[in-house]
TrEMBL record, chain A:
Family: Belongs to the ABC transporter superfamily.
Native source species: Bacillus yapensis
GO cellular component, one term: plasma membrane
Molecular-function annotations in GO: ATP binding; ATP hydrolysis activity
Topology with respect to the bilayer: Peripheral membrane protein
Domain ABC transporter span(s) in chain numbering: 7-258
Lineage, highest ranks first: Bacteria, Bacillati, Bacillota, Bacilli, Bacillales
InterPro entries reported for this sequence: AAA+_ATPase, ABC_Ni/Peptide_Import, ABC_transporter-like_ATP-bd, ABC_transporter-like_CS, Oligopep_ABC_C, P-loop_NTPase
SMART domains: AAA
Domain of life according to the entry: Bacteria
Biological-process GO terms, alphabetical: peptide transport
The protein's name: ABC transporter ATP-binding protein
UniProtKB/TrEMBL annotation, chain B:
Taxonomic source organism: Robertmurraya kyonggiensis
Keyword Manganese: no
Matching Gene3D superfamilies: P-loop containing nucleotide triphosphate hydrolases (3.40.50.300)
PANTHER family hit by this protein: ABC TRANSPORTER, ATP-BINDING PROTEIN, TRANSPORT ATP-BINDING PROTEIN
The ABC transporter domain, residue ranges: 6-256
Protein name listed in UniProt: Dipeptide ABC transporter ATP-binding protein
Swiss-Prot/TrEMBL keywords: ATP-binding, Nucleotide-binding, Transport
MF (Gene Ontology): ATP binding; ATP hydrolysis activity
Family: Belongs to the ABC transporter superfamily.
A GO BP entry: peptide transport
Signal peptide range: none
Length: 328, 323
């Protein structure tokens, strides 16, 4: 932990402004990503995990959205006030992103080579021929056979898994320090998902790129991540190493989430289920956001919003039950 | 002891591929290719497979939402494929379906009451008061409130909408429910609520389920028996525990090994399946899986293996076990 983190997010708050007023989708979250680390962000729909990643890329549609507070330090530089021109340099060079839908994130009208080379020429200041060579190498790196031919093919000629590999190649083509992967395997079949996950793990080792893995699938987290952040309704509710999250979860939400997954290894008589529904962003104004669904709720939880408490080294929980360790 | 409710024999569904100016048939997609299985009364049969394996098409052909190309579907001894359209409509009182997308499967312009009432009107419950009463009862059964009847689908969350979808399927008091990916659009915490509800309903109304899903964990949890499909074919079918503990078919093995396990300590070195799913329009000759199989033999490339009983009640279609 002597090295400065690649990314340090401090009290980030991103809101959307609608006719009903301000809706904070991400509310005061802080976390950091170290060099070469794979950090997982998990949560259900509407918890703010995708808004977090878009905030880091500064791709929040504005209006209605806006980063209203906090800092995003990338290698020490705060990119919240950065200009669009500066951001264009950062995106691709320092941070790259891959999206959930490999079907829609490639332009169907251009060949793979065309799209892959575009970014390389722009960021690496090389000529077309060299860029093509780099492109072919990148495709080989992500395990695509017959890379030269694929450069000349169109997205529709590739399968979902291959398209996601192309996306990864594209994202990594300018050696970013940080790769944000927003649900990269959700649209893929399990056998293909396993291939992509193992590819991402290998690339992480080989290139030492830090990865933020955003997902709703706890199995994926256990498979690839080293550290995990659990988000609920725009807040970080728990942060710990992968082992601690799965072996020693503290927050009632994390516990409930783990209990409610059907496991292929053993058959539970009955699945645990968290009562109620995932709240809409901004619906809960006061107290702990999980209070209404929590099994261990106290009166205090409805009034006061718990801070992040320290449960152990590197293990933080936003719950009054674990107040003993002191505030973080 | 167990009574067979539904028996599917050599079911096929081919979709034509048309091409050229005249729209002539130039090929066919064998979405379901020679599938046979049975479902016992009161049990849950899970059907799993990757996208394009034909599991949803199978569900739709059973309901005759799609006409089968060949084969028979016997429901309580009656061949559904031979029924006239009108008789089939009456038969659908007994077989109902729950769909994947709770956002698309409910009419946004109808109130919940109207949505739930419709199956009763179709199946001849004439008394209006009776219909209203049954709608309210059913809402309570699936864990909603009777005052929800006057609301519109957009006023509900995904999980609640799926409950409405289930309520609609139950309105006609069916014997068999075909659930096509009923929980895959839901969040984890909501998913378990709906799975528990399905189990409770099964006990309460002695329902039989055909549960179609791609999530192997979910299928294991809810199913008594599980069938694995690959490129339109059933490659293995047996009791859920047996399938997960001792899979026979190489595809089932690979599929099970691919699931990410929510436990960082169990990071087994996986044998990853190579390559992609071949196109169903042009499936490989012989065994459809031979292009990706690690135990591929010469015979696999030429002869299609039949689904045979390898151990008691454990069926698999693989040459490895054909002695």
């Amino acid at each position: 932990m002597t090295q400065a983190p690649v990314l340090d997010v401090k009290e980030l708050k991103t809101s959307f402004f609608s006719s009903d007023g301000e809706v904070p989708a991400v509310d005061n979250i802080s976390f950091s990503v170290n060099k070469g680390e794979i950090l997982g962000i998990v949560g259900e729909s509407g918890c703010g995990k995708s808004v977090t990643s878009l905030s880091i890329m500064k791709l929040i549609p504005q209006p209605p959205g806006k980063i209203v507070g906090g800092e995003i330090l990338l290698n020490g530089e705060d990119i919240v006030p950065a200009s669009e021109k500066r951001m264009r340099e950062i995106r691709g060079n320092d941070i790259a992103m891959i999206f959930q839908e490999p079907m829609t994130s490639l332009n169907p009208l251009f060949t793979i080579g065309n799209q892959l080379v575009e970014g390389i020429i722009l960021h690496k200041k090389v000529n077309k021929k060299e860029a093509f060579k780099i492109g072919v190498e990148m495709l080989k790196l992500v395990g695509l056979p017959r890379a030269e031919q694929i450069m000349k093919e169109y997205p529709h000629q590739l399968s979902g898994g291959m398209r996601q590999r192309v996306m990864i190649a594209m994202a990594l083509s300018c050696d970013p320090k940080l790769l944000i992967a927003d649900e990269p395997t959700t649209a893929l079949d399990v056998t293909i998902q396993a291939q992509i996950l193992s590819l991402m793990k290998n690339l992480n080792k080989k290139l030492d790129t830090a990865i933020i893995m955003i997902t709703h699938d706890l199995g994926v987290v256990a498979e690839v991540c080293q550290r995990v952040i659990v988000m609920y309704a725009g807040k970080v509710v728990e942060e710990a190493s992968v082992r601690d999250i799965f072996k020693n979860p503290k927050h009632p939400y994390t516990v409930g989430l783990l209990e409610s997954i059907p496991d292929v290894r053993e058959k539970k008589e009955r699945l645990y289920s968290i009562p109620g529904n995932v709240p809409k962003p901004g619906a809960i104004k006061q107290g702990c956001r999980f209070a209404a669904r929590c099994a261990n709720v106290h009166d205090r939880c409805f009034v006061e919003d718990p801070p992040l408490y320290k449960a152990a080294d590197g293990h933080h929980v936003r719950c009054f039950l674990h107040a003993a360790g002191g505030e973080n | 002891m167990s009574e067979v409710l539904l028996k599917v024999d050599k079911l096929k569904k081919y979709f034509p591929i048309t091409g050229g100016v005249l729209g002539r048939k130039v090929g066919e997609v064998k979405a379901v290719d020679d599938v046979s299985f049975f479902v016992n009364k009161g049990e849950t049969l899970g059907l799993v497979g990757e996208s394009g394996c034909g599991k949803s098409t199978t569900g739709r052909v059973l309901m005759r939402l799609l006409e089968p190309t060949e084969g028979t579907v016997e429901f309580e001894g009656q061949d559904l494929t031979k029924l006239k359209a009108e008789d089939m409509r009456r038969m659908r009182k007994e077989i109902q379906m729950v769909f994947q997308d709770p956002f698309a499967s409910l009419n946004p312009r109808h109130t919940v009451e109207k949505i739930l009432e419709e199956p009763l009107i179709v199946h001849g419950v004439k008394d209006k008061e009776e219909r209203k009463r049954r709608v309210r009862e059913m809402l309570e059964v699936v864990g909603l409130n009777s005052y929800h009847a006057k609301r519109y689908p957009h006023q509900f969350s995904g999980g609640q909408r799926q409950r409405i979808g289930i309520a609609r399927a139950l309105m006609t008091k069916p014997k068999l429910i075909i659930a096509d990916e009923p929980v895959s659009a839901l969040d984890v915490s909501i998913q378990s609520q709906v799975l528990n509800l399905l189990e409770d309903l099964q006990k309460e109304f002695q329902l039989t389920y055909i549960f179609i899903a791609h999530d192997l964990g979910v299928v294991k949890h809810i199913s008594d028996r599980v069938g694995v499909m690959y490129l339109g074919r059933l490659v293995e079918i047996t009791e859920a525990d047996k399938l997960y503990e001792k899979p026979l078919h190489p595809y089932t093995k690979a599929l099970l090994a691919s699931i990410p396990i929510p436990d960082p300590d169990v990071q087994q070195e996986k044998e990853l399946l190579k390559g992609d799913l071949p196109s169903p329009a042009n499936p490989p000759l012989g065994c459809a899986f031979h292009t990706r199989c690690s135990a591929c033999m010469e015979v696999c490339k030429t002869t299609r293996p039949e689904l045979v009983e390898i151990e008691p009640s454990h069926f698999a279609a693989c040459h490895l076990y054909n002695k």
